[in-house]
Amino acid sequence: MKKRILTLSFALFSVGVMNFIYGQKTEEVKNWYNGPTPGMNTEKAYSSLKKQKSTTVVVAVIDSGIDIEHKDLQGKIWTNDDEIPNNGMDDDKNGYIDDVHGWNFLGSPDGQNQNYARLEKTRICAELHAKFKDKSESDISAAEKADYTKYKGLLKEIETEREGNLSALEQYTQLGEAFPMLKAKLVEKLGENFTEKDVQEWKAESPQDLQLKQLGTYIANGQLSEEAIKEGIQHLDASANYQLNMEYNDRQFVGDNPDDFNDVRYGNSDVEGPDALHGTHVGGIIGSVRHNELGGDGVAENIRLMSLRAVPDGDEQDKDVALAIRYAADNGASIINMSFGKAYSKHQKEVYDAMLYAESKGVLLVHAAGNDGVNLDENPNFPTNEYSFQTKPLDLYLCVGASTRDKKNLAANFSNYSSRQVNIFAPGFEIYNTVPQSDYKILQGTSMAAPMVSGVAALLKSYFPSLTMMEIKDIMLASAKRYKGTMIPAPGTGTSVDFGTLSTTGAVIDISAAVKMCQSKVKK
Predict the structure, then answer these.
(1) Residues 45 and 179 in one domain
(2) Which of 323, 299, 320, 322 is nearest to 455 (CA)?
(3) Helix (H) and strand (E) counts for the chain?
(4) What is the CA radius of gyration of the chain?
(5) Contact 81, 304 (CB under 8 A)
(6) Which of 7, 239, 336, 495 is the most exposed place for a label (fewest CB within 10 A)?
(7) Which of 509, 512, 451, 452 is nearest to 481 (CA)?
(8) Distance between CA atoms of 447 and 24, rounded to whole angstroms?
(9) Is 258 helix (H, G, I), strand (E, B) or coil?
(10) Which of 505, 488, 345 is nearest to 422 (CA)?
(11) Could you tell me which residues come within 8 angstroms of residue 437 by beta carbon, excluding any fewer than 6 positions away?
């Protein structure tokens, strides 16, 4: 899971995978995704389901971990009834000891946990570095030329990016130290609770005041705060010192060989891990308690969340992903949410085989499209449904882009897209839901859009258990709200584009329409 930093003027930042929003009015965005179009019409859907009974559906969340004690997820966590908690035994003989609520593929048997990881390109470059570091171009054989060219390209890219992040880290640190004083000066000039309008009306003249005015705008509109600076420092530190550090040993706590898919006895039962913010938010979108007036409401009501921790702060290992998919398929999940992705993948066939295995068991795979604002036809985001060796697409796979609550800017500016590879869009902008310690936060990204679709699939399967996941997938796509012909700013560029060209459907998911279609199909 890449956490990319985009540096803006005055050292502001935006996190690519999960954009943190500070200072927003919670009530303004709370539950918009469950509301009317461009929301998913969730409440309207439930009003037409009042006379129907539901069954429980298990949704596996392959992510950073879930805070299973969150007050808004009580009664929503999957339990392995065949496992006796904390007895140190593999009671159900599935190969995992005390896997009561799922499994942690980023831990060791003695309870240690991996948090940071290198990017896949860093791991690949490190392997090639060991091979080529002492060689010049004249030493390279014809057979090695392709690898050598790849190595030199990756090395330059990593060194440039790391140098930039280290520089930005220094700037953020300085900004953090100066922030209280700078804010105090703004309060002195504009008043304690200054607004964006106050800042705009301030006739600043000196260079220092002009720069202070720019800072004040970001503080007033909620883009900059002490918390935001702290998050920026943490992400830049993770990127420069771990994700892009070729010398970092990112499996030291796990102890397995990530390239050996026969080495499968590793991990532990700690399904929360050291940083479960991302996974807890994803899980809450799928199924946090509805209408309890606490945080944002989950999409699906009668679900159980299976936590499979496989996504570190950095790029996930293909082996962890493949084993997590197989675990979910073998332990009763109907849907697997995959809010992660990376630009490089070493073991593509093994991940594909795992997805094919899940499909053979009727499990729907829902994957986030990614947050680089690019066309996936030209910039892959693994895992994918277009591997070069595939003879046909997976039938039970959905790739999801992120939509907003603004019809004029319907596709989120960070969302990846593709007329071939992205299947549908779903709300992924300004999403308020659960984070650890029974708290809530507004986050955004295709990481938030994917669980919207997973939640819809779970809701439909819950109320229409006779339908297969293939039928449910087809209904979700067929019933989605079409926006073909709607011109919007294209993600990543801002140039005008037809929303209908950004996915195979040109549509945003609509639960109410999907429920009606399911009712009609079941009745027939």
Answers:
(1) no
(2) 299
(3) 13, 16
(4) 23
(5) no
(6) 495
(7) 509
(8) 20
(9) coil
(10) 505
(11) 67, 70
Question: What contacts 325, CB < 8 A, 6 or more positions away?
Answer: 62, 336, 351, 354, 355, 357, 358, 365
Element spanning 166, H or E: helix 145-190
Number of domains in the chain: 2
Number of residues in the chain: 524
Tokens of 365: 């795979």
Asked if the structure places residue 236 within a domain, the reply is: yes
For residue 228, the model assigns a pLDDT of 87
Of 215, 243, 271, which residue is a domain's last?
Answer: 243
Strands (E), 8-98: 13-15, 19-20, 57-63
- 311: CATH: 3.40.50.200
How many CB atoms sit inside 10 A of residue 85's CB? 12
Assess contact for 479 and 514: CB atoms under 8 A.
yes
Joined together, the tokens standing for residue 333 give 């999940």
Same domain, residue pair 388 and 364: yes
Spatial distance between the Cα atoms of 86 and 69, rounded to a whole number of angstroms = 17
Residue 18 lies in a domain: no
Amino acid symbol at 518: C
- Nearest-CA neighbor of 300 among 59, 8, 23, 513? 59
Same domain, 99 and 125: no
Query: Is 26 inside a domain boundary?
Result: no
Domain-ending residue, one of 243, 273, 304: 243
Largest CA-CA distance found in the chain, in angstroms, rounded = 76
Whether residue 403 sits in one domain with residue 310: yes
Within this chain, do residues 394 and 289 fall inside the same structural domain, yes or no? yes
**Closest to 410 (Cα-Cα) out of 498, 299, 480, 282:** 498
276, 213: one domain: no
Burial class of residue 70 in the structure, from the number of CB atoms within 10 Å of its CB (0-12 exposed, 13-18 middle, 19+ buried) = buried
Contact at 8 Å (CB) between 13 and 480? Answer: no
Q: Are residues 296 and 444 both part of a single domain?
A: yes
Distance separating alpha carbons of residues 382 and 367, to the nearest angstrom: 9
Kindly state whether residues 40 and 173 are assigned to the same domain. no
Q: Report the predicted TM-score, pTM, of the whole model to 2 decimal places.
A: 0.93
Report how far residue 98's alpha carbon sits from residue 114's, in angstroms, rounded to the nearest whole number: 19
Give the integer Cα–Cα distance in Å for 315 and 187: 42
Neighbours of 156 (CB within 10 A): 11
Enclosing domain of residue 212 = 120-243
HSE-CB at 432 with a 13 A cutoff on CA atoms is: 17
Report the amino acid identity of residue 85. Answer: P
Name the burial class of residue 234, with classes exposed (0-12), middle (13-18) and buried (19+) by CB atoms within 10 angstroms of its CB: middle
pLDDT at position 484 is 95
Q: Are strands 19-20 and 439-444 parallel, antiparallel or unpaired?
A: antiparallel
498 domain-assigned: yes
